[in-house]
Specification:
mainly alpha; 12 helices
């Protein structure tokens, strides 16, 4: 296998598996940059996957080819609404943010499985009839070498994830909104003294994380899983949370970490076609993303500095 062929077999699947992680990790960046730890990314992905699949199955005949796009928009809205639970507990009631996030994970999975059983009378939904499909990008896919690697047989959601990462970077670091958001995550009292509504900014950030988590879950369900069950989102949200930490709470860093973890997940699919991995037992390739996640964090977490007020409830007037 030539080098170009190797890249062509590695890059598209890596981007394919990375997209849901990028979306969800960006949500984690917004939340944690505001000072609210969001362990509930897994639950938000579960809710997004559930809503995306159910909407797709219900309205496939109505919206046709537009169904997957409308499905992810609806999943974003429901994810945003679902995250309000975490926002109320963590911001308004000053609850322990880790406990609140864990509760979100349990609630989302339990609700999804319960409703699936009620509506479909079995433990999983049917397979969706209108998933996302790979396409060749016109003109760009005809570029020699690069076209086959980056613009052929690709999901549009992969490009959307990368574009959104750069947009998130611009919003956080180049706009007044981003400055205020980072201020309440670093020193909420100083931000409050300067007229910034700390509670409002944190609510917005957590709701944004819910929308992006719902987007990540629905994209995973409509490109990879194609149905919903208790095992649709297994560890993806925690991997996205690891990408947030590994990426130093920076949108582009989180995207890079998500691409790394996405590549690790793709090994179980493409490993047989790579000479160095052809003889590696399949079970090792399946656990590779989780092992690499642990190793990455074990070697990096000591050097990663979270926003100073991350995880600390803000009580107005207190010191």
């Amino acid at each position: 296998m030539g080098f170009i062929d190797l890249l062509q077999s590695i890059i598209p699947p890596a981007l394919f598996f990375s997209a849901p992680l990028i979306f969800t990790a960006l949500g984690g960046v917004f939340s944690e940059r505001s000072g609210v730890v969001n362990i509930g990314l897994e639950g938000l992905m579960v809710m997004g996957a559930f809503v995306g699949v159910v909407f797709n199955l219900t309205f496939a005949d109505v919206f046709g080819a537009w169904t997957p796009w409308i499905s992810i928009i609806v999943a974003m809205l429901i994810g945003a609404l679902f995250s309000v639970i975490h926002a109320v507990a963590a911001v308004s009631f000053h609850a322990d943010q880790v406990v609140s996030g864990v509760a979100i994970n349990f609630l989302a999975l339990g609700l999804g499985i319960f409703l699936t059983k009620q509506w479909y009378d079995k433990g999983q939904t049917d397979m969706v009839s209108q998933p996302f499909y790979t396409i060749d990008i016109p003109i760009l896919s005809e570029i020699p070498v690069i076209g086959d690697i980056l613009f052929s047989n690709m999901y549009l959601t992969s490009y959307l994830a990368i574009i959104l990462a750069f947009l998130a970077w611009y919003v956080l670091y180049k706009t007044p909104f981003g400055l205020r958001l980072r201020a309440v995550g670093e020193h909420p009292m100083a931000a409050d003294t300067n007229g910034i509504n700390v509670y409002k900014m944190r609510y917005i950030a957590v709701i944004l994380s819910g929308a992006l988590g719902g987007l990540g879950g629905s994209v995973f369900a409509l490109t990879i899983a194609l149905n919903f069950s208790h095992a649709t989102i297994v560890g993806q949200g925690f991997m996205a949370l690891a990408a947030v930490i590994f990426g130093k709470w920076h949108p582009l860093g989180a995207m890079g970490a998500a691409l790394f973890f996405g590549f690790a997940q793709s090994l179980s699919v493409i490993g047989a076609g790579i000479p160095l991995l052809a003889d590696v037992p399949q079970v090792f390739l399946l656990i590779a993303p989780y092992v690499l996640t642990i190793l990455a964090l074990a070697g990096f977490i000591g050097r990663a500095e979270a926003p100073k007020a991350n995880g600390q409830p803000y009580i107005k007037g207190s010191r």
